[in-house]
Design brief:
By secondary structure, the protein is of the alpha/beta class. It is built from ten helices and ten strands. α6 (about 190-200) packs parallel to α8. The chain is globular, with a radius of gyration of 19 Å. The protein binds zinc ion. Zinc ion binds near residues 7, 182, 215 and 314.
């Protein structure tokens, strides 16, 4: 009960990449970079185990960014000529590559990290991929055409490629494959209308556990500013949860602690596993076990205990390494305290 995991990313060590950045530059190249990525992955597998997490991830050490790490292995994308684009409904600008031709995978995307992960932990493993709708929002299009039709076509094309990689990850022995869809919280109508469908296409044929992570973004200033405009009640999840509840996706990861998400929205996910965000990734203040257990306790009003999985609100990529380590320990200690409290009832 209350199996713990991270949403996905962890800070990169300073010998691998620039620290505390969302799009960090690598510090190595060629074979040395490949080795450094593998070393960092191993380091975080060990650190997660030491912290006591139940479900272990690769910490996304081998990708510069959670979306572009996937796109680098896709043919039909021009990475040499990136353009500036407002992403997440113009919340912030990013330099993004352009889709210029039919999309095809060049080969495996994450074989190295997935196989390392499987070989070096006996615990359950989780692996993350960007969701199709979020990819479409993090790339410029010069091929599929303007408007909604073009976006849907492009999302379905990416979903097919994601599905290929997801099936390969499953064959590597990964237990949970999670698609990250922060865009679901930005384009709520589109998410319910076709985003969930694209997500299901990406997960087609998987027999392992499938998950989707929907958050309010990394702890960067643009996101903090945006959250301040969302008012006292964040009801974005209300639009997409009913569509997800009807979908074949098994688990939903959501932001909870320090957010203004009304807890009762979790009731819309009846029957699904809910990865409840009990750790804030936008603050360096480390949660106490009591705070974590309190959040779990409140979520239990709306999620059955066997369906509740304590998690971080989002990835920890732009965070300091020591802070992230301390937060992993808080997550585990808080889940243990919540189990104790439940046993006393
Ligand atoms: Zn997130």
């Amino acid at each position: 009960m209350f199996l713990t995991s991270i949403a996905g990313s962890l800070p990169k060590p300073e010998w691998l990449a620039e620290t505390e950045k969302l799009w960090p530059q690598w510090k190595q190249e060629g074979q040395a970079l490949h080795q450094a990525k593998a070393d960092a992955t191993l380091l975080w597998i060990k650190a997660q185990e030491d912290a006591g997490l139940d479900i272990i991830g690769d910490g996304e050490q081998a990708r510069q960014h959670f979306v572009h790490g996937f796109l680098e292995q896709v043919e039909g994308i021009d990475f040499a000529n990136k353009v500036k684009m407002g992403i997440r409904n113009n919340r912030y600008d990013a330099m993004v590559p352009q889709v210029v031709a039919p999309l095809r995978l060049k080969g495996r995307v994450h074989a190295m990290e997935a196989q390392l992960l499987r070989a070096h932990t006996q615990r359950k493993t989780k692996f993350t991929l960007p969701g199709p709708m979020t990819i479409v929002d993090t790339v410029a299009d010069r091929f599929y055409g303007e408007g909604k039709d073009g976006r849907i076509k492009m999302a379905m094309a990416f979903a097919e490629l994601l599905n290929q990689e997801a099936l390969a990850l499953q064959a590597d022995g990964i237990d949970i494959i999670q698609f990250d869809e922060p865009a679901f919280n930005v384009y709520m109508e589109d998410a319910a209308e076709w985003g969930v469908q694209a997500l299901e296409r990406a997960a087609q044929g998987l027999t392992c556990t499938t998950a989707v992570h929907i958050c309010y973004g990394y702890g960067i200033q643009a996101n903090v500013d945006w959250k301040n405009t969302l008012g006292q009640e964040w009801r974005q999840y209300e639009k997409v949860f009913p569509a997800l509840a009807k979908s074949r996706i098994d688990q939903v990861s959501l932001e909870c602690w320090h957010s203004h998400v009304p807890m009762d929205l979790m009731a819309l996910l009846a029957g699904k596993d809910v990865m409840v965000g009990v750790i804030d990734v936008a603050s360096d203040a480390v949660e106490t076990p009591q705070e974590v257990a309190d959040t779990i306790g409140r979520a239990l009003q709306f999620v059955r205990k066997e369906h509740l999985f304590p998690c971080t609100n989002c990835g920890m990529a732009p965070m300091g390494r020591a802070t992230a380590q301390a937060k992993l320990q808080a997550l585990v200690a808080g889940a243990a305290l919540a189990r104790e409290r439940l046993a006393q009832h």
